[in-house]
Amino acid sequence: MVGNQNWKIIFAVSIVVLALIYILDNFISETEELMYKRLESSVTSDMSSLARNIDILLEDKTIFRGNQSLFSYLSSSLSLRKDLERDLNLFITQKIKYLYLVYQDDTQRFRYLLDGSSEDKARFNQKFDVENTAYENIYKTKKEFAITQKGLENLSITYLYPIIKNNEVEAILVFDFSSAFEYELRKIIAPLKTMFMLIYVLIGVFLIVTAIQTLFYYQARKRSYIDELTGCYNRQYLRYFLDTHDIANYQILMIDFDYFKKINDNYGHDVGDDVLIFCTKIIKYFLAKEDKIFRYGGEEFIVLIHNSSKAEDTAQEIRTQIEKQYYVRESVHINMTVSIGVNPIPAHARNTSQAINIADSMLYKAKVQGRNRVVVYDSDMKINIEEIHSSSHNIHNVVEALNDDRVICYFHKIIDKSGVVHKYEALVRYIAKDGIVVYPNHFLSDITHTKVYTDLTKRVIDICVKTIETEKVAVSMNLNVNDLCNYVLLEYLIEKVQNMKYKDAALTVEILESEKIENMSELGVSIQKLHSCGVKVAIDDFGSGYANFNYLVELNVDYIKIDGYLVENAVKSEKSREIVKSIIDLAHQMQMKTIAEFVSSKEIQEMMESLGTDYLQGFYISKPSADIS
To answer: Are 560 and 592 in contact (CB under 8 A)?
Structure first.
């Protein structure tokens, strides 16, 4: 019972204290409001009179301008402006801090005409930012107006007075008045100061506790934004940074350490981690305070170079210095190189994702051109930006399909002359959210120079390997020249094949011949690696584009797939028939097998068989299907 009574007393006292505080606060507020109103009325009246006098002064000194606007007249005479500003300066007092004349230009922006200030003086026609609609309303109402801002210790009034000619507002005369109230208010609130001090202390304690909690929160949040290994920002912070900053203020570097997987494989992940730390320190050395570095994933980094520096120069310095430095640990000596893609004009992209994609595309070009180089996007590549703009939706769809496991392969039979299935060609597709099957011609070109393409290729490899294992059949898959020269993809493919149980001539890689082979020796090494783990190699679409018979000499391949256009025309064109015959004969002399594509009729099939082709593929044989049958 006593406890309840105490609670009642505490509650009652609290109510009384709060009520007293409320009454005293109201009293102070009412007194303060009364003083403000009296002073405001007095100041407004004084400034109105002062404004009229200045208006007369302006009229007297610009009486000869005729029909000229005040802006035109003042812009033509620097001496007049200086003279008028000296006159305005005479009205500057301890309370009238600023006195200036502004006008609204043709674009509805306010600009200075005259500034009577002694310090922080505005230039003629300098832009004047306004946050109050009263300035625009003056032009409509043609009436003077006071903007009052009240504080605990001072009163600030901005007084607007229209300068009118021919019944139109030409400019606005602006006074900024400020008056201190500290002495008067101190006398009023002195008896209550002790009581309010306690409240302030309690509030202060609460704020300190809140500040400490907030500090701990932000420290934890900061830790969540930092990559623990390298000390760089992580991908999570990159998303936050791009959401809160204008990408147009930066240039983008996409950096990838060349053949980094070899280090992990040969020396272990501890050495790999040390090398990564070593190299990121070199990168950071060349970055300015305004620049940002993010670990984008694995050995790939994004660097945002502020526009105060030139991204290409920074990229070249980073590349050169990393190439010069050696990582040394006991008996381990490692020399690293980097490939860097640069997008110096991200503002040309429609959004940040596309701006990063452009840098990623340049990184891809650097790798294709031999690595250890910097490739910079420039204005001559505008068409590529437009392609990226139009393809962003497709890229997003492919990413979603990969995440939702909606990427599939259709399988197309390849038969021998007796009709027995020799193998199946895997053709990538993805299932759209509405259930429609999307073919590669609708999306493959859009993702070619992105990381999404690498992810998609790995998924196709997975599907082919799984199909071989479960169905016990041979499968062909398509890769382009750059794929086979891509160390990451090649190693991924070899690792998958080496882990297969059923792999006797089970996988064939078809090289898309329509792409010109720039680095024949590097491709030859890749083919040799594939052969060493039991993978067959075919040249696809032979005769369609850059192919020449030297490829057959330079590259040790197992199959030649004759281009479908030549196959279809062999029936009606003697020249096509002779070309096909020559390809088949040469292939057989070099111990290679041939496959005729686009066999779309019985007549074509019989023609190809008569010419001696080993295998046949086309819609007359069968159509691609999601199931092996």
So the answer is: yes
